[in-house]
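Before relying on records like the one below, remember that each one covers exactly one chain. Contacts with other chains, cofactors or solvent are not represented anywhere in the record.
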Amino acid sequence: MSNEGVGVVFISCLLLGAGLGTLFGSFEFGGLIGLGIGLIIVLLYRTKRPDNH
């Protein structure tokens, strides 16, 4: 997956979390959960990516 793909996945997690938070009455808390999941996905992508140096 390219860096742009990971960015799209991150934004998708953020928006999905905010949407779920809105359904449950807390937009900020849902966004925070989406942010956390998105950061974990980016971290996993960066640690498993082979170095091109």
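Helices lie at 3-23, 27-48.
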